[in-house]
Design a protein that fits this description.
Residues 7-77, 81-182, 183-283, 289-402, 403-506, 498-617 form the Cadherin domain. By secondary structure, the chain is mainly beta. 10% of the residues lie in helices and 35% in strands. The chain has a 5-stranded antiparallel beta sheet, with no helix packed on it. A 5-stranded mixed beta sheet has the order 25-32-31-27-29, with no helix packed on it.
Length: 789
């Protein structure tokens, strides 16, 4: 008791100090003694007083050299008892390097229902559980899983307990605790008339119950020999000490046992004195000689079972080879077998089951065998026969079996409740109450059905209404069960047969359609019946106005014009109505029996298709949708290819146009003085020169002289031509009005442009001046741009 793993001691503790006291007890109340050992190579720091358990320090401690001491504590009860309850077997040890409670280790065993061991939670000592013991003959090896668990602690802010496991293999050693067992009993020996002293009669053999470490057997005759027989203590051979004529009894029963063991290790050897071969083999029962044996048993006994109800003994009163005979069992082959097959003088006959399935009450109510005993080595070949009759009792060894694994039934819809659906049959080969079968049904589809528990007839529920349009297939399971609950299953499939109970129906009784010449219009009726032919519809034209104009597809309901009507002109010739609206009475009739029909009036407006190639193509392709689909894919492919080609060309053009080539251009600034242009209109000229201006440039020579650039200047911009003035009849006395001139200067792009207008006189309207100013500024801008670029 106690946890020495939590014990700590200061390193300055003096040698000889009492530091701890071991405490323990024996479950059986025996006094205990204590001991302590250390690992090989380590120093012994403590000594333990065996009786009191006081631990004393015997070596100086130094924590810097060793901060932990591992010691093995033992406790014994002082008895030399192997594998007894509470005995210590092994000590496990788990080391946890943590300090504090995290380094405290406790032990426990993973529980198993048949464990015979327990472990001390603190010391790790593995013991045999109280009340349990180990037996080599029952189990030679045990496996025990030990779990070591620390005291727990926080790790990364979370409390956790860590464990480790180990598997201990315990090998049980055999001890001399099992008595010897004689092999081949019962023993029978014989003394023949021709035997002499020293003749071997019989040899007994016993083996030690402790097979791992057996003791040598020494035999002795305890009683019954009357001085006529002796036994070899080593071999177990029984020999005759006198001549047969000196034997007083015909039968001797010797008590033979191994030396040094109790009475339950003793066996009996029966020795019979044999005379001449004048007796045949004979069968004996409990009441003496018997040649008929009867037995009542249940069918299907386990294979290898002995028929203990047959107590048969066979005996031949002769001696020696005259009494050796063979046993044979004649009957259904490989059902029973007889043991032994060869007998000397006398033997207990054992009948063993060899084939359990053949012992079947449903096949045979009784079995009959002949048991023969025939001498082997005698000229006479005497024999004996006994009848063995086995009456079988029935057991519930069969489950009810259906005549079929599944049943298929058909029932018309709208059948009244309680209608017969199908009859199922199951039989149980067992007899009596075990052969009675009760039926039941279950499953998701069994709600509308019930079954008679004894006849197996399946009906519809009284309230059930079967409708093929709602649900036409049902399946469920039928169960056949005997009185003990053994059962089998079969599956039932019920099909609700459709009846023609729904007429065809159009969406409306009056329909309107627009028909393009050359294309049909379609009408459709719906029949709610579940199956064909009840829901197959045939269409026909009952009446048309005008007549003999339309045809109808009896299967699809498509209405189209007669083939000769190909244009609106033909339609106009048929009818005088301008709107071309014709009426057709269409009948839809199902194919059921009896057949139902319904009619609808179809108002058809005749029109001619617009001449559109694509629409015409789609109309022609309505019966061949793959053709229209192929054309659509082709058009999309061409569009994609053209788009890719255009994008590629644009890409290469943009790539070339974006290249920048170096260019050198010298631009001279104009002198500060500004050039001025004088615009003089040539009045009085023809209409061709109307609106033109003439420039008077006084400084043109200077400009030409001063221009030393190798590149010539661009020509000066031409002034716009002024519009002709309004016609004025001048008088000689009036003074001529001067034409206003415009002066301008040319500079770089970023320089501001200015223009001044000087007007003389007030004869020209302000609107003309504004327009002229605007046009001149436009021309100057264009000229400036051409000059710099």
């Amino acid at each position: 008791n106690g946890n020495l793993a939590l014990f700590s001691i200061s390193e300055d503790t003096s040698v000889g100090t009492h530091v701890y006291t071991l405490n323990g007890s024996d479950p059986e109340g025996e006094p205990v003694t204590f001991g302590m050992t250390f690992d090989k190579g380590s120093r012994d720091y403590f000594s333990v007083e065996p009786k009191s358990g006081n631990m004393t320090l015997i070596q100086t401690l130094d924590r810097e050299v060793q901060d932990e001491i591992v010691a093995f504590v033992t406790i014994t009860d002082g008895r030399n008892k192997d594998a007894a309850s509470g005995s210590s077997i092994y000590r496990v040890q788990a080391i946890d390097r943590d300090l504090g409670s995290g380094g405290s280790v406790t032990y426990y065993l993973q529980s198993t229902p048949s464990t015979k061991f327990t472990i001390d939670g603190h010391s790790g000592v593995l013991r045999i559980r109280a009340g349990e013991s180990l037996d080599y003959e029952l189990s030679r090896t045990h496996f025990v899983t030990v779990v070591a668990k620390d005291g727990g602690g926080k790790y990364h802010g979370k409390y956790q307990v860590m464990t480790s496991t180990a598997i201990i293999t315990i090998n049980v050693l055999d001890t001399q605790d099992s008595p010897p067992v004689f092999v081949g009993t019962p023993y029978f020996g014989f003394v023949y008339e021709v035997s002499v002293p020293g003749s071997e009669i019989f040899t007994v053999f016993a083996k030690d119950g402790d097979q791992n470490n057996p003791n040598a057997m020494h035999y002795s005759i305890l009683s019954g020999s009357d001085g006529f027989f002796i036994i070899n203590s080593s071999s177990g051979c029984i020999s005759l000490t006198s001549f047969p004529v000196q034997l007083k009894n015909e039968l001797y029963e010797l008590k033979v046992g191994p030396d040094g063991f109790s009475d339950y290790s003793v066996t009996t050897v029966t020795i019979r004195v044999v005379d001449l071969n004048n007796h045949p083999p004979t069968f004996y029962g409990e009441n003496g000689q018997q040649n008929r044996f009867e037995l009542t048993m249940y069918e299907h006994p386990p294979e290898g079972e002995i028929l203990r109800g047959l107590k048969i003994t066979v005996n031949d009163s002769d001696q020696g080879a005259n009494a050796k005979f063979r046993l044979l069992l004649v009957g259904p082959s490989r059902v029973l077998r007889v043991v032994p097959q060869t007998v000397l003088n006398e033997a207990q006959v054992t009948i063993i089951v060899e084939n359990s399935s053949a012992i079947d009450y449903e096949k045979y109510q009784f079995l009959t065998f002949k048991l023969l005993a025939v001498e082997i080595d005698t000229p006479e070949r005497f024999s004996a026969t006994a009848d063995i009759v086995i009456d079988l009792l029935d057991t519930n060894d069969n489950v009810p079996k259906f005549s079929s694994e599944f049943y298929i039934a058909r029932i018309p819809e709208n059948s009244p409740g309680g209608s017969n659906v199908v009859s199922v049959t199951a039989t149980d080969p067992d007899s009596g109450l075990w052969g009675e079968v009760k039926y039941s049904i279950y499953g998701s589809g069994a709600d509308l059905f019930l079954i008679h528990p004894t006849s197996g007839i399946i009906y519809t529920q009284p309230w059930a209404s079967l409708d093929a349009e709602v649900k036409s297939k049902y399946n469920f399971y039928v169960k056949a069960e005997d009185t003990e609950g053994k059962y089998s299953l079969a599956e039932v499939f019920v099909t609700v047969l459709d009846q023609n109970d729904h007429p065809p129906e159009f969406n409306q009784n009056f329909l309107e359609r627009t028909m393009i010449i050359g294309a049909p219009v379609k009408i459709e009726a719906v029949d709610e019946d579940a199956e064909e032919p009840n829901n197959l519809i045939e269409y026909s034209i009952m009446k048309a106005d005008p007549e003999n104009i339309f045809d109808i597809n009896t299967s699809t309901g498509e209405i189209k014009l007669k083939p000769y009507i190909r244009s609106m002109e033909i339609v106009q010739n048929i009818t005088k109505q301008k709107d071309c609206r014709w009426s057709v009475v269409v009948q839809a009739r199902d194919r059921g029996s009896p057949s139902f029909s319904t009619t609808a009036v179809v108002k058809i407006h005749i029109t001619e298709a617009v001449s559109r190639p694509m629409a015409a193509f789609l109309m022609q392709s309505r019966d061949n949708p793959m053709k229209a689909l192929g054309l659509t894919i082709s058009i999309i492919t061409v569009i994609v290819l053209v788009t890719v080609m255009i994008s590629t060309i644009m890409y290469f053009r943009n790539t070339k146009s974006n290249r920048i080539t170096p260019a050198r251009r010298i631009i001279r600034r104009r002198p500060k003085e500004q050039r001025s242009w004088t615009f003089r209109p040539r009045f009085g000229q023809s209409d061709q020169s109307f609106g033109k201006f003439f420039i008077d440039d006084d400084s043109s020579d200077n400009h030409n002289t001063n221009n030393s650039s190798p590149r010539a200047k661009p020509p000066a911009p031409s002034a716009p031509v002024l519009p002709p003035p309004a016609p004025v009849h001048s008088r000689p006395s009036e003074r001529l009005r001067s034409v206003p001139t415009v002066s301008g200067s040319m500079a770089s792009r970023n320089t501001s442009r200015s223009s001044s207008w000087k007007t003389n006189g007030s004869g020209i309207s302000s609107a003309l001046v504004s327009e002229l100013k605007m046009r001149i500024e436009q021309k100057i801008n264009e000229a400036n741009q051409g000059y710099y670029y």
